[in-house]
Amino acid sequence: xxxxxxxxxxxxxxxxxxxxxTERGEPALAAQVAQxxxxxxxxxxxxxxxxxxxxxxPTGAFGxxxxxxxxxxxxxxxxxxxxxxxxxQIELLYRDDLKAKIHAAMP
Length: 107
Ligand SMILES: [Zn+2]
Hints:
Blueprint: H1 6-9, H2 11-23, H3 27-32, E1 40-41, E2 52-53, E3 66-71, E4 77-83, E5 86-93, H4 96-105
Antiparallel strand pairs: 1-2, 2-5, 3-4, 4-5
């Protein structure tokens, strides 16, 4: 099974994350975005949810060193979850422009 790269699935989201993380003062995280892969996506089933994991999904909560960076996109809801120095999850809600592509890549 291939693990798709975010940049191949939703390149526009990569650009958006790079810009928002840089503006937030997180250049090291911005530099990771182009290498991220979609390991799995959220299975909550909410119609507005396009959240996906960029590291193996934890059983339960993320461990110590977890923080959530709430970004302010022009539309929808976009948070980046980080453990240590690694981006582990992209929380993406109310983004119908991206959802179909993400679900097609990770059914
Ligand atoms: Zn969800």
